[in-house]
Design a protein that fits this description.
CATH superfamily of the largest domain in chain A: PAS domain
Largest sheet of chain B: 5 strands, parallel
CATH topology of the largest domain in chain A: Beta-Lactamase
Oligomer: heterodimer
Number of helices of chain B: 8
Strand content of chain B: 15-25%
Shape of chain A: rod-shaped
Structural class of chain A: alpha+beta
CATH class of the largest domain in chain A: Alpha Beta
CATH class of the largest domain in chain B: Alpha Beta
CATH architecture of the largest domain in chain A: 2-Layer Sandwich
Order of helices and strands of chain B: EHEHEEEHEHEHEEEEHHHEE
CATH topology of the largest domain in chain B: Rossmann fold
Strand order of the largest sheet of chain B: 2-1-3-6-7
Largest sheet of chain A: 5 strands, antiparallel
Number of domains of chain A: 3
Shape of chain B: globular
Strand content of chain A: 5-15%
Number of strands of chain B: 13
Number of strands of chain A: 12
Number of domains of chain B: 2
Distance between the termini of chain B: 23 Å
Amino acid sequence: MAGTSLVSRLILLLTSSMAALWLLGSVAAGMLTVFEVNERLDNAIEEVAQRLLPATYGAVQQPQVMQQTARQLVATLDPKALAYQIIGPGGEVAMRSGNAPERPFPVPRQGGFHDTPQYRIYSQPAAAEGYFIEVAEPAMHRSEALLRATALTVGPLLLFLPLSWFLIRWAVLRSMRSLDRLRGEIGRRDGSNLSQIPDMGLPAELAPILAAVNRLLEHLERALATERQFAANSAHELRTPIAAVLAQMQLLSVQLSGTQHAERATRIVSQIKGLSSLAEKLLQLSRAGAAVGMQKERIDILTVLQVLVDEFRRREDVGDRLVVTTACSDELIVQGELDVVGITLRNLIENAVRYGDPDEPIEIVVERDRQIRLLNGGAVIPSQTLETLKKPFVRGSSVGAGGGLGLAIVDSVMKQIGGSLMLMSPVMGRNGGFEARLVFPEPI
Amino acid sequence: MRILLVEDEPHLGSAVQEHVRAAGHAVDWFERLEPAEHAVLTVPYDALLLDLHLPDGRGLDFLRKLRRRGNALPVVILTARDLVSDRIEGLKAGADDYIVKPFDLDEVNARLEAVSRRYFGKAAPVLQVGPVELEWESKIARLDGRPVELSAREWAVIEVLGRRRQSTVSKEQIEDALYAFGEEIESNTIEVYVSRIRRKLGRDFIRTIRGLGYRLGD
């Protein structure tokens, strides 16, 4: 039943149960009807036999007169009407109704009911010695009577079945409306919407679910806010001491230059920078993860780009290598959190600076169809390596001191905001290079 | 240049002070905003290196107050907050540049000089003073095309005069730009530096305006 709707299951279950009950009731009613009709008809045959008792005297004393009387008593020749015979001591038919066979009924001469294929026969000893009265009801008549009685009893019950299905379906659908609304509201809660579900006047059975979901949403939102706050605070708490250590070590390195310890000092500076970079990426990864419930605000990505490009161009290893081409003249609105989108773009630019050919430009192309392409020079990256680059701690090249987290962070963020990250190498129409393309969804 | 540094992390503050000083600048370092506020009112600083999280307040509030008073001092923010929104907020508050911790000490000097160039009109990367050619960014001086080696202090004196190219700079102004609070300074220190520069770059490179001070010659 997995995959079928609760409504269908309920309707099927209720209708089947109802049908089974109807069937049971119908069978019981039919059996009772058959029993009652049989009893009534048997009583009628018995009664006729009783009434014929006096006639046996006449049949014995004045057979000719009684034959005439008998014809009057049972004048009909209707094959469905009761037939009777008065059987003499020698087994001959002493008297019979017009619709009775001329030969005696093929039943033993004993009191009680007997059945033959054509008749149900009641046999009763007559008042005269050796005589029997046998009243027979045609089997066809009884079958018809039973069939009609059963049809009248069971037929309406069967007719009610489709009506029951319709009523059950209506009742179930009506009762499920509240559940549908609740389901719809819960369904609308996702990474971008952790707001409380409003009171919908739900029935008593569903109200606790609503309250529990709201409590859960509140806890989740609080936990995510705490995580975001923690990530932001950690940035400060971690970076400042690392900055102090790096600055002191750089001073020491300058002081040790020209001595035997100079190389070691340079290595330590390099290690601190690596540690700093790793700490920063881990914080960004944590931030990206904590952005599950991030507010999706409308932000102009060109503004974010401007701030970042301005920052990167001040770096000696970047400068005018960073070239921006945009097809959007004034703004490009996307939906997300400003800082998280900033982390995404920063990582892509850093990736291009770190792994791209330092003698080739880093191009940022903003397309009209909500796509941002970052292109850098360099050797072609094999397709099997490209596929793994979005995984954490995977580097595409041994050149550069990256932590292998940048593209994993970008991929994580883009998925959360409903967009995607595509990686290509070589750049389309060129012999080498690498392209990272961000595809942003339409803002709501 | 005379730099005001506001940084509450002692190891970082001392390293920045030492490194910037080694580049020939005077650095007054405070760990809190309150003394920094007094200092900025009394000393004509050339740039401010400002941390944002300080024990007695937010660096951004200090910066906004500074700008509201009409103080156009070049400001470089030193912060651990690297988010785009933080950067936008800092720039909106009136910062000229933004350096995220941890940073290279050389990067601090480079940024200081970059904002200083923007402020003091040394936009032209090369200044020609008679036979002397000065490359501000690489700090290279050439006399008749030959490179001349200058100490950080000597270069700092030239920078002070170069920033006020068209005016006469008093000895006290040069002292203020070169020496921080509490630094020992002899009465003839500036004369000594001027004399050394003239020996290296020619007598006419720096002109003495009697009773007023010095200026770069033509």
